[in-house]
What does this fold into?
Amino acid sequence: MTESPAPTTWQHRLENQHKADWNLAAGVVLLLAFLLRLWKASGTFLNLDEAMHFLAANKVSLAEAYRTSLTLAHPPLLILFLHVWRKLGTSELFLRLPSVIAGTIFCWIFFRWLTRVLGPTVGWVGFILVSLLPVFVELAAEVRQYPLLLCFMMAAAYMLELALGENSAGKMAAFFCFLYLAMLTHFSAILFAGTVGAYSLWRLASVHASRRIFAVWVAGQAGALGLFVFLYFVQISHLKAGASAQHMQVLLANSYFHWGKDHLLGFVFARTFGVLQYTFGQLAVGDITGVLYIAGVVLLFTGKDGASRKRPSPVQLGLFLLLPFVINALAAIVDSYPYGGTRHSAFLIPFAVAGVSLAIAKLTRQRLAPALSVVVVIVAGCQMFGAPHRPYLRREDQRRSNMTRAMDEIQQSVSPDDVIFVDFQTSFLLRFYLCPEISFTGLPPSAFRDFSCGGHRVISLGPETNILTADLLARRWNEMVSAYGLKPGQTVWIFQAGWDIGLAQELREKVPEFRDLKAESFGRNISLFKLTVRQETTGPHH
It folds into this structure.
């Protein structure tokens, strides 16, 4: 008599049920991640960078959009995509929807990759962190390159593991396709390309890959090098001397190493912990998780398991988690790319989360329930006590209704004979909401821009004056009046919108003549007030 297969059948059923339950749980987390990002992306007006990206894409032809993209500080892929996407809709939420989707897909791919290389407990810890931490939600709720960058990076890393595990030339080719897409999305992906290039070569050698796989890898590396050379000569080399690059050097001065001023080890240490503080959005949690990240990397470098075709060795994975930080630090030391707690180092945060997740799993002895309890406490703390990253707009101040009221006020109060004077930041927001089809008509020698927008004459300051302050107004007012021949008694409306504005309040506090200045405010980040050109050339009058 043969034994009944029932026990085996029941075992398979239990395993399948267990797998289905975990898949359902993962689906719930992923849905929550999507809804959080969708909520964050809805109901608010665009910021400067978002409006700039749209206006660069909002051209008659794809070729013109590409030429415009070359003047920005990012590769062209997002602009080219937006050029096509805008034909389907131009509301704020619709423009942000690709970021929301890419940010959600990133969470899932990261979960699959981390589970494959470090096991299910580490995978779940990392999955919860990238799905629910505020920084990941914020990055995926704006018209920016970062959600696409993270999605393509993790897709490349996951495809590399699948290619080696399955000895698949097709998946190796897919790895390089995603790597190229990342490089065409954000220049920081070039640093990632250096990391994954070194890591993949070591992995190839350790698994004794077939000649076909190795041939695809060599061809792919040549393609990546060729793409880098193309981007450098077509765009990067021209950006170095531009106003945008100089502005970033000033804005991110702490993220670059200054010889003779900074201590090398102190700089690397502080900026590394800055990345963790940015990732978790809370200083104390960032410092603690910085220690956990270091502990996770040390655990990997002291691991003794060997590499297999399906999984890298602990030392190989330790290199993969550490090398991006090393390369980024070196780039900052040679003044090529910022390193620290800003979104410009966003390509580092998946590696930071992976190291932290491993340390948490080790501390809880790979037990899933305690590990998830720890991570829920971390996420709750960051959500409740985290500080937003500057520059930022509070949600209540960034409500779409505030911008709608501001545009209505301009249309009602500003006559066709009046002039609207704006700083560089505001010019993009004004164009997006009042005249998105308008291109600049010229760049006068005085570095002002003059254009017509919604039936109004607008004079804009150039990129060297991103935000207009009282001191800058005092210096630039007479230049503007002279350059455009404004007559005494001419009404000039000052419109400000975006990050860190406060000209009206600053004038009230610093200039006695403007103590009673009346300004219309639409939240804390939009203001409109009226000045008059005086007979004498000593400044404005209200």
In short: The chain has a mean pLDDT of 89. The CA atoms of residues 384 and 533 lie 48 Å apart. The chain has two domains: 28-385, 400-541.
